[in-house]
């Protein structure tokens, strides 16, 4: 009787072990499938993109479609580059940061100082909702606010505002979380020295949480760097370098969209994407590195 | 924000009333302009839902890999980093890759036509939301207390049985919330979908046919829009805002309840 | 009520009928005490007796929390501290905390003069050097750190960090130093160094010390104050209190019946 039970038990257990191993193998296989697109995408970008990358690509404006067509017909490198896009992207990111960082950090400090209060909870929830709003809707909002009422036309400012709204919730959250991790005794020590409150924030809390804030800001920037949709509704694009924030401006992702729609410019798509990816991923890795260092 | 969206959408709602949401007609011909959002609402929900289903086995496996099987190992760190990188790729690059790599593949595989359509768009969307779903459920899975799992192991359970009986039930609502939030993200994705869905303004008739989503119709038609059409696009933006708001709200609520 | 006010002439600090409540729960009830100049006064009592609250009320740090009500007065040079600006008050009352908390972004040097920096007082280089050296010598840290003044304060050992924090409190030239269990996070050797330091410091400063540790109070304090459930039970010379406690509750505490 006992022996019989033991054998049936054994049989069942070997089936269980087999099933266990099978699922583990499946998990490994599917995990590899999950990350394969990243390798495939980067591979494609490199193979197709490297031949256009040159100094000229970075410092020249976009060619007109005829010049590109001629070059393609003669099997030459397409002339020109994406300088207008690079400058536009830089301009809008600086402007968006100038809007989002102060507002975001101040809001984060406010939330930190008013834990559990109605108003703070409301603001935190609004910020959370904002984080989930699709970027194209933010583009629409900036269109309604800025394009229609402030700059009376498509503009870099409108693009920056839509990007700033995108960054804002990330900065608010990372500010609050960073401040929460600073031991309260540090704040008390500074106050016990008779320091006025704003100095405590400026000289003690912000320097101590510096790397946390920076991580949030860099991640915010890497998120908006590749954004295309909101810019289509706000900054529109421009074929020359533009530094006037009230005028239409190009951006690297916008140029990719234009190249994609112009059969003569296909050759530029991959190199622009390669460059954009390089920026985004570098920023991403750098900011994660910052975050890792803090732990 | 809501206020200005509503303001911009008023002319359209005035003209079409509730029919705006349930009507399938979208005709910009002057003189008999009719705009209804149904094709786009349907397209958005269909692609996002399909994307969710496609991403489910992949992201769930990956989060088990990261949060359970190889938790804390070097391999998991590298895999986690790669998944994070997936989140860093701009939407437009996904679109390009989908257009030049995935679409020809679809044609070769015999999905018909140009390779555009709901299915192709869902596929690229699935890849795009994998990192969100993975990192959210990975965090929750990794949080399942070890002593619970050890209790199950000490009773002779295999790893799979521990996952089935302890890890998943404990983390269930968090995992669900993670997928709801990823769904919310898929709803608003614009560029990659615009480049792959085919952009036909009708209610999709088949899963492999073409269609359009709320986000991509705004992106596509905004340039040439004014008057009633512009207002209708803004109205679609408002609807998209509300839908994503509700979906995200539900997801966040579940997470808040858990912690 | 304990009768101990009369014997102290020219007190450093006079506490009069001080009551402090959190949400209507009194943590400190009707405390009246005079603190003698140039002494170490220990505040003792079991956890939750209100000793930390009392200490924090003396430089108004307790006001950092919500829903606090304060009644009564604390007189410093005949002036009620609750009518003074906190900035002015806190310059005259240095504070040292349970755990060493040097500012992690500042060097040792900058930590010592942090009080000046945070108040926006600009000093000449020579003044700074003088203050830093004097303060560090006062806490017997100068010889240990004089070659690494510009390194981060957080690299020091726990005991050194705590002495650095005391130097930070001294640098401003306060009259009174409030200490909230300053040795509770230190090892025995570091503790005895800090204790020796306190005995030396009372030549120039008045020290009020919250401690959990009865033998510490016996070793270094001149006066002791025993609190129980927010009330001041007994106050007097430490020697007398330890050898001949008047109140049965004090006796029970000192003999280890509770606490």
UniProtKB/TrEMBL annotation, chain A:
UniProt-annotated location(s): Cell membrane
Domain of life of the organism encoding this protein: Bacteria
UniProt keywords (A-Z) are: Cell membrane, Membrane, Phosphate transport, Transmembrane, Transmembrane helix, Transport
Q: Where are its TM segments located?
A: 22-46, 90-113, 125-146, 152-172, 204-225, 265-286
The record lists the lineage as:
Bacteria, Pseudomonadati, Bacteroidota, Bacteroidia, Marinilabiliales
Family, similarity comment: Belongs to the binding-protein-dependent transport system permease family. CysTW subfamily.
Q: Which residues form the ABC transmembrane type-1 domain?
A: 86-287
Query: Where are the annotated coiled coils located?
Result: none
Q: What are the GO MF terms of this UniProt record? A: phosphate transmembrane transporter activity
The protein, known as: Phosphate transport system permease protein PstA
Instruction: Tell me how this protein sits in the membrane.
Output: Multi-pass membrane protein
Q: Which GO terms describe its cellular component?
A: plasma membrane
Q: Does the keyword Transport apply?
A: yes
What the entry lists under InterPro entries is as follows: MetI-like (IPR000515), MetI-like_sf (IPR035906), Phosphate_PstA (IPR005672), Phosphate_transprt_permease (IPR051408)
Q: Coding gene? A: pstA
What organism does the record attribute this protein to? Gaoshiqia sediminis
Question: Which GO biological process categories is it annotated with?
Answer: phosphate ion transmembrane transport
TrEMBL record, chain C:
A Pfam family assignment: ABC_tran
All residue ranges annotated as the ABC transporter domain in the record: 13-254
GO biological process terms, alphabetically, are:
phosphate ion transmembrane transport
SMART domains, sorted: AAA
Claim: Transport is one of the keywords in the record: yes
An example of a Gene Ontology cellular component annotation for this protein is: membrane
Keywords assigned by UniProt, alphabetized: ATP-binding, Nucleotide-binding, Phosphate transport, Transport
Task: Note whether Ion transport occurs among the keywords.
Answer: no
Matching Gene3D superfamilies, A to Z?
A: P-loop containing nucleotide triphosphate hydrolases
Recorded GO molecular functions are: ATP binding; ATP hydrolysis activity; phosphate transmembrane transporter activity
Q: Which InterPro entries match?
A: AAA+_ATPase, ABC_transporter-like_ATP-bd, ABC_transporter-like_CS, P-loop_NTPase, PstB-like
Q: What is this protein called?
A: Phosphate ABC transporter ATP-binding protein PstB
Q: Name its species.
A: Gaoshiqia sediminis
Lineage summary: Bacteria, Pseudomonadati, Bacteroidota, Bacteroidia, Marinilabiliales
User: What gene codes for this chain?
Assistant: pstB
């Amino acid at each position: 009787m006992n022996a019989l039970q033991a054998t049936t038990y054994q049989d069942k257990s070997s089936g269980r072990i087999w099933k266990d191993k099978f699922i583990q193998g499946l998990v490994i296989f599917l995990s590899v499938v999950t990350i394969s697109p990243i390798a495939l995408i980067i591979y494609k970008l490199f193979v197709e993109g490297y031949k256009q990358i040159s100094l000229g690509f970075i410092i020249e404006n976009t060619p007109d479609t005829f010049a590109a067509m001629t070059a393609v017909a003669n099997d030459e490198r397409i002339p020109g580059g994406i300088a207008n896009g690079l400058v536009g992207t830089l301009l809008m990111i600086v402007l968006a940061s100038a809007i989002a960082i102060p507002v975001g950090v101040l809001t984060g400090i406010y939330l930190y100082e008013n834990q559990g209060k109605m108003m703070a909870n409301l603001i935190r929830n609004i910020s959370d909702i904002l984080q989930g709003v699709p970027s194209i809707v933010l583009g629409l909002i900036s269109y309604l606010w800025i394009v229609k009422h402030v700059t009376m036309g498509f503009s870099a400012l409108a693009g920056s505002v839509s990007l700033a709204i995108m960054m804002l919730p990330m900065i608010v959250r990372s500010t609050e979380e960073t401040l929460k991790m600073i031991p309260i005794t540090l704040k008390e020590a500074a106050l016990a020295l008779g320091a006025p409150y704003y100095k405590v924030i400026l000289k003690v809390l912000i320097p101590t949480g510096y790397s946390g804030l920076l991580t949030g800001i860099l991640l915010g920037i890497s998120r908006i760097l590749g954004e295309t949709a909101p810019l289509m509704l706000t900054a529109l694009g421009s074929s020359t370098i533009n530094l006037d924030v009230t005028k239409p401006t190009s951006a690297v992702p916008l140029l990719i969209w234009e190249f994609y729609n112009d059969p003569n410019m296909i050759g530029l798509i991959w190199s622009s994407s390669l460059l954009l990816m390089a920026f985004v991923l570098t920023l991403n890795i750098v900011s994660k590195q910052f975050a890792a260092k803090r732990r | 924000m809501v206020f200005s969206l509503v303001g911009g959408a008023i002319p359209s709602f005035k003209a079409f009333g509730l029919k705006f949401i349930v009507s399938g007609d979208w005709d910009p011909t002057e003189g008999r302009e009719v705009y209804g959002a149904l094709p786009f609402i349907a397209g958005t929900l269909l692609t996002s839902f399909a994307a969710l289903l496609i991403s489910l086995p992949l992201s769930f496996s990956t989060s088990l890999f990261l949060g359970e099987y190889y938790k804390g190992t070097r391999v998991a760190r590298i895999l986690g980093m790669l998944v994070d990188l997936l989140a860093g790729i701009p939407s437009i690059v996904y679109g390009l890759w989908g257009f030049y790599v995935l679409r020809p593949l679809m044609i070769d595989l015999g999905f018909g036509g140009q390779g555009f359509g709901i299915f192709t768009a869902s596929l690229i969307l699935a890849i795009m939301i994998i990192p969100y779903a993975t990192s959210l459920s990975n965090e929750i899975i990794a949080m399942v207390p070890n002593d619970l799992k050890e209790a199950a192991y000490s009773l002779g359970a295999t790893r799979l049985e521990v996952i089935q009986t302890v890890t998943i039930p404990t983390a269930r609502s968090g995992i669900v919330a993670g997928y709801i939030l990823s769904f919310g993200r898929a709803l608003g994705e614009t560029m990659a979908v615009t480049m792959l869905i085919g952009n036909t303004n009708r209610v999709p008739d088949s899963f492999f046919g073409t269609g359009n989503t709320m986000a991509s119709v705004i992106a596509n038609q905004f340039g040439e829009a004014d008057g009633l059409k512009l207002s209708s696009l803004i109205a679609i933006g408002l609807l998209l805002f509300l839908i994503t708001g509700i979906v995200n709200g539900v997801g966040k609520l579940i997470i808040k309840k858990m912690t | 009520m304990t009768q101990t006010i009369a014997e102290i002439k020219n007190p450093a600090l006079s506490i009069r009928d001080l009551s402090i409540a959190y949400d209507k729960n009194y943590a400190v009830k009707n405390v009246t005490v005079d603190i003698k100049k140039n002494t170490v006064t220990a505040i003792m009592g079991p956890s939750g007796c209100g000793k930390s609250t009392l200490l924090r009320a003396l430089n108004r740090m307790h006001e950092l929390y919500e829903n606090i009500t304060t009644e009564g007065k604390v007189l410093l040079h005949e002036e009620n501290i609750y009518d003074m600006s906190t900035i002015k008050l806190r310059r005259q009352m240095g504070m040292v905390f349970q755990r060493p908390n040097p500012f992690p972004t500042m060097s040792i040097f900058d930590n010592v003069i942090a009080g000046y920096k945070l108040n926006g007082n600009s000093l000449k280089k020579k003044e700074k050097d003088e203050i830093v050296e004097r303060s560090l010598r006062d806490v017997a840290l100068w010889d240990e750190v004089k070659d690494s003044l510009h390194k981060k304060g957080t690299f020091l050992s726990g005991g050194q960090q705590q002495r650095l924090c005391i130097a930070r409190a001294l640098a401003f030239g306060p009259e009174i130093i409030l200490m909230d269990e300053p040795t509770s996070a230190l090892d025995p050797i570091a503790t005895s160094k800090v204790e020796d330091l306190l005995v030396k410091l009372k030549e120039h400063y008045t020290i009020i010390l919250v401690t959990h540790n009865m033998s510490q109070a016996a070793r270094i304090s001149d006066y002791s104050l025993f609190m129980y459930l927010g009330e001041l039970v007994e106050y007097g010379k430490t020697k007398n209190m330890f050898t001949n406690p008047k109140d049965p509750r004090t006796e029970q505490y000192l003999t280890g019946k509770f606490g």
